[in-house]
Amino acid sequence: MEEGPVVLLSTFYRGRNNIMTASCTMSMDFSPMVGVMLGPWDCSYRALLKTRECVLAIPGADLLAKTVAIGNCSGAEVDKFAEYKLTPCPAAKVKAPLIGEALKNLECKLIKNQQRVPET
Ligand SMILES: Cc1cc2nc3c(=O)[nH]c(=O)nc-3n(C[C@H](O)[C@H](O)[C@H](O)COP(=O)(O)O)c2cc1C
Asked: How far apart, in Å, are the Cα atoms of 49 and each of 18, 33, 46, 56, 80?
């Protein structure tokens, strides 16, 4: 049911960079609009709603193991850039970092959100 590629989604919130893995991704339109489904239990969910910015980084096959590991731990407990030896690079238009080792990085602004769970 998941039609998009697995991506690494980075955020910058309260002075900290974070990354999560997301595979529920899809194109929404012929414009460059991408849909991503995040669980409200993810730290990244709150960061994205609060800052309305993120980077979607496309990992290559060399990042396979790290991509799975990043999706199995929480930014509340782990500095994932440090733990997985990834390089946060400044983006041009958002505060969320590019991932230096990714194949491509898309700087994104949140333009629409369907919030099913109230913020805590
Ligand atoms: C391959 C893979 C795909 C994932 N896809 C999603 C997804 O599409 N949406 C989601 O909310 N969580 C997804 N996850 C789980 C999150 O990456 C995971 O909950 C992560 O710990 C969230 O990190 P954070 O709390 O630092 O934001 C995926 C995990 C893996 C390993």
From this structure: 14, 17, 5, 15, 20
